[in-house]
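Issue: ligand-bound run for zinc ion - logging full I/O for the record.

Environment: standard queue, default settings, no custom constraints.

Inputs:
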Amino acid sequence: MKAYVTEKPRHLSLTEVEEPEVGPGQVLLQVRAVGICGSDHHIYLGHHPYARLPMVQGHEFCGEILRYGPECKETLPEGSQVVIEPLLRCGTCYACRQGRYNCCESLAIFGVHRPGAFQERVVVPEYLMHGSDDLEPQVATFAEPLSIAVQAVKRGRIQADDIVLVLGAGPIGLATLLACKDIGAQVVISDVMASRLEKARALGADQVFNPERDDPQALRAYTGGGVTAVIDAVAVEPAIRLGIDLLRAAGRYVLIGMSGKDLPIPISTVVAKEIDIIGSRNSSNVFADAVALLRRNVSKVEQIISVSEGLDTLPAMMDYSIEHPEKVEKMVVVL
Ligand SMILES: [Zn+2]
Ligand SMILES: [Zn+2]
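Outputs:
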């Protein structure tokens, strides 16, 4: 079968690979759609902190059940479309025993540490499947980025009476906007790209903020003295300063964005305001919630995704989505 293998930075090569073996508790899927994520850009460009090349990328995917291996529960009929929570965990480490398998000490992610969905077929454990027959394949793949947002909202204990500043209006920032609005919170979203702020407005942001153009004091006034939570999907120094500065005392600062380097955090302000700094990685026990959130937001998700037809369009779409962030929020390749 055909697979795109990232051999070395900036080289996605079409390769003929062996059909995968279907072991106990596993399912063979025909890939129907796969999203290209910001972390895929990092892997492709060769500066992802955890990924090693060569690798078949693709962790945001849905597929059709072709065949169950032995010892499966066979909860869904063959031919069903499923979207996959792409996290393999050990189940025994401290994090796993707390139910926080998203940061398992031996975590393996499809498309990062294990072959992902930049190929025709893929084998996954049955327990990672979520039925999605009612969703278009390109829409269903967005359950994965939404799960990241739902996790951040859970970690930040976001409630309806919160005013949340979302830093970054890329796919994860926009997914976070949808997750916060679903709860009923007010959302201010910040980005330096005007096109993304426009999209955020259309998707329901209460206010948008461009740090290169707008005055933080006006934003403080708009929020009546500051925000109660920040969800940071960018992790760059000026954004952290802005977020900590605009946060009210007793607020929460949730970090989703990954940075290749350590960034300074204004510690004295964190202590003075007793701010909770909270890391949020992948998601745990909320993937079904993310699929449900997706079902409530199909028309909005359709505004976030761009679709390309055919596995062979993958290399061009990888480059295009890297070079044109002003035109593409989330690129999805439909097979
Ligand atoms: Zn992703
Ligand atoms: Zn573990």
